[in-house]
Amino acid sequence: MDYNLSPEQQALQQRVRKLAQEKLAPLAHEADEMDELHPGVTKALAQEGLFKYMVPKEYGGNGISVINVCIIREELSKVCGQADSTFAMQGLGSYSITLAGSEDLKRRYLPKVATGEAIAAFALTEPQAGSDVGSLQTTATLDGDHYVINGTKRYISQCGFASFYTTFLKTDPGAGTKGISAIVVDKGTPGLDTSKKVKLLAPHVNGEVLYRNVRVPKSQLLGAPGGGMRIALSTLDVFRTTVAAAVLGMAEAAYAAALKRAKERKAFGQPLADFQATQFKLAEMVTGIEAARHLIFWAAWLKDSGTAQVIQQASMAKLFATEMAQRVVDEALQIHGAAGLEKGSIIEKLYREVRQPRVYEGSTEILKIVIAREILKDK
Ligand SMILES: Cc1cc2nc3c(=O)[nH]c(=O)nc-3n(C[C@H](O)[C@H](O)[C@H](O)COP(=O)(O)OP(=O)(O)OC[C@H]3O[C@@H](n4cnc5c(N)ncnc54)[C@H](O)[C@@H]3O)c2cc1C
Fold first, then answer.
1. Which single residue of 31, 125, 200, 290 has CA 20 to 30 Å from 180?
2. How far is the CA of 238 from the centre of ligand 1 (A)?
3. CA 241 to ligand 1 center in whole angstroms
């Protein structure tokens, strides 16, 4: 077994680390407290060519490797949450086109995603349908050569800033999940309203997308009618592991800050690091980080090696990493004492940021259901 990153992967890691430290760190405080896209952050990611890692080579990208996406997300999330989510959404929002779009749609959208000229969004969740995707209520009705879309999507990242919304809706409302289809809706289409923001615990570009008799050419449909659920699941099969990599980065940032603090801060005449209670915390933190790293890069490697479906490994990686990172950030805050609660401190920011991934792209409970289903399916 070879546990080392290849020379190319190591070079990518170094390049993103440098970008994060030199260009993103000075913007991070401002960007991570905004519910708008920070133009400097998007520009830095685009100039570095990072969005190309979300697009196949034939359409102007570098090809999509889950390991590369994990490497990038781990480095970005250590420094700037918005940089990580902007990068991630380019992939999540456009992968359905890569997977199922017509040649014309691929040529029209993907090269612009690769350069950052187009910003992508993934619109699945609704006010009444989150984990239970089958109960989504947005519909598309055929009228000549167009679909007419009506409904509401909520908690949509990049809302108001995206150039297009990959929208999951029902073309056959009576057919349950088999009636779900995916269609690309351009910003500015009459009847599309993306003006309502949703404010979250850790500021994040997010909002509600309203569709009121939005007419979209039939040619914007991805794949065949009724293929939407398969597209959504295949998308998660690629990106779920990368959420785990993002929280790994958050845990590493919290651990590094806690280690430094434990060595520097004195209480009762000695550094906190000399107390066994602190040492046990640090030992558990670093063990959790290491364990998560193995699960994440194993799931990523399996997918890149051509395993058709890694839903169990990806779900295990995300489940373990998100729960681990929550504990690590909490313990890092405890080691910091009141300084970790202070607004503007890295730990206070991470404490808010790390909570959100336990809910999206498969909540903790849904991941356990998926893992259990996989281990019991041959029973
Ligand atoms: C920061 C952020 C960004 C997001 N970005 C996007 C985006 O870009 N696009 C998009 O479409 N959505 C997005 N979402 C929405 C996200 O995908 C949903 O929040 C998620 O799917 C969960 O749905 P819900 O919030 O409606 O919770 P619910 O589905 O209502 O679940 C509530 C609780 O019940 C639990 N639960 C549900 N079903 C079961 C069950 N069968 N057994 C046990 N427990 C269960 C859940 O685990 C959860 O704890 C985002 C959310 C956040 C927080």
1. 200
2. 18
3. 17
- The response to whether residue 359 sits with its C-beta less than 6 Å from ligand 1 reads yes
Distant-in-sequence, close-in-space partners of 2: CB < 8 Å, separation ≥ 6: none
Per-residue b or e along 176-191, where b marks 16 or more CB atoms closer than 10 Å to that residue's CB: ebebbbbbbbbbeeee
Query: How many angstroms separate the alpha carbon of residue 128 from the centre of ligand 1?
Result: 10
Q: Evaluate whether the domain defined by 121-226 bears CATH number 2.70.70.10.
A: no
The span from the CA of 353 to the CA of 290, in Å, is: 21
At 300-333, the pLDDT tens digits run: 999 999 987 899 999 999 999 999 999 999 999 9
In CATH, what is the architecture of 7-118?
Answer: Orthogonal Bundle (1.10)
Which residues are within 8 A (CB) of 199 and not within 5 positions of it... i.e. 6 or more apart?
A: 35, 206
Q: Which residues are catalytic?
A: 361
The Cα 253–Cα 14 span in angstroms is 16
130 Cβ closer than 6 Å to some ligand 1 atom? yes
Alpha helices by DSSP H, listed for the chain, are: 7-19, 25-31, 39-47, 66-79, 81-100, 103-115, 228-264, 276-304, 311-336, 346-353, 364-376
- Has this prediction a pTM greater than 0.85? yes
CATH top-level class for 229-376? mainly alpha
With a 6 Å cutoff on the Cβ, whether 133 touches ligand 1 is no
Position of tokens 């295949």? 234
DSSP 227: -
Q: How do the domains of the chain map onto residue ranges?
A: 7-118, 121-226, 229-376
Q: Which atom of ligand 1 is nearest to the CA of 362?
A: 21
